[in-house]
TrEMBL record, chains A, B:
Cited PANTHER family: GLUTATHIONE S-TRANSFERASE OMEGA, PTHR43968
GO BP annotations listed: glutathione metabolic process
Record GO terms (molecular function): glutathione dehydrogenase (ascorbate) activity; glutathione transferase activity
Name of the protein described by the UniProt record: Glutathione S-transferase
Record keywords, A-Z: Transferase
Amino acid sequence: MSLKLFELVGTDPSRPFSPYCWRTRMALAHKGLSAETLPWRFTEKSAIAPHGSEKVPVLLHHHKPVVDSWAIANYLEDHFPDRPLLFGGEGGRAMARMINAFGDIAIVGGIFPLIVADIPNNLAEVDAAYFRQSREARFGGKTLEEVMANRDTGVVAFRKSLEVMRQTLKKQPFIGGAAPNYADYIVFGGFQWARVVSPFKLLENDDPVYAWREKLLDAFDGMARTSPGFAV
Amino acid sequence: MSLKLFELVGTDPSRPFSPYCWRTRMALAHKGLSAETLPWRFTEKSAIAPHGSEKVPVLLHHHKPVVDSWAIANYLEDHFPDRPLLFGGEGGRAMARMINAFGDIAIVGGIFPLIVADIPNNLAEVDAAYFRQSREARFGGKTLEEVMANRDTGVVAFRKSLEVMRQTLKKQPFIGGAAPNYADYIVFGGFQWARVVSPFKLLENDDPVYAWREKLLDAFDGMARTSPGFAV
């Protein structure tokens, strides 16, 4: 089978950092699938435009493009049904939609102001300039440094926002139950993104979410832990 | 089959209002099961103590007690597997744990300060006194009226906290997918609780969450809509 994955990187092509690409990386590993990685940078829009996307991840399966991490997870589930299930049935597939929204809003959205000014350090000049300009516009013209200025208090609110997850992990080892599934990878993608680009400490060591993240760093022979990042 | 359900009521025994009991009511209806209702009030601890609980819902199945709405949903799924599924498979059962935490924290916890001082209006004097004393202690001695004083601004934050759900409902009709399942009932229970005890308007009419709530009010021949409550 031929699988290729466009993944967001910066100056180091072996250091993928997008939270959405990490969702896909973990999903591929869960299915026991390997994909050739195609390193992609923010300003390389022309490389993925022919595949109908402006963003990554983009998966190519026998040259057919599948765009967006959620669509890719569903594609993998439907095209490789005999391999370990990502959703654990149709109920899980539906509910994972809400966990996907939690991952986008509470996790990626919550972490963003805590690490945003660290991200350009990982990027070549042209990509750093693009990132700064596009993201500062989203924050109404604030500099990335201004957005991040209060992260020591912001992280307290972020940790509080994880209570829903914390209560879940007090009852069962993973969001997906006894073993991790795509629900876990959705959320983990955000934490791994932070780990790759920033030394900032998001979680306290005695947090059940910390213990959960440790287990996912170790999953698939330590795939996420051995990928370049900060020890957090 | 013999099913009986202890349900929280106030002065009107035909007006059940607990968010957790409503989760169970909807779950029973989903399974096509009917249970004899056993109206129960806050101060009637002795009625359920023999069944090993201090709180409702308590389900009796051939006299065997099942305590706690989550445990009851799982019990129904396991004991009535040939009836419509509440979780849609093991993945859904696991992920519903996190939606249950969302229901407890964001929905019940979020609605509580918006309606709390309206609740005693529904209770007999002895229950109202118990409710006031126990809940005011939880809020560090604030009166229920003080807790609710800022609800006009509090409801704005509450609506914002529903964004995770709103994003989900823009993609699919129900949290459970094309049709509602227990994930929906978890969240709906909180809205129905508010509707029964308080005239306060929680949702704006153009909110996708409002449209979703309308559909659940209509479910099972309008079971929740025809149960006594306020038009909200």
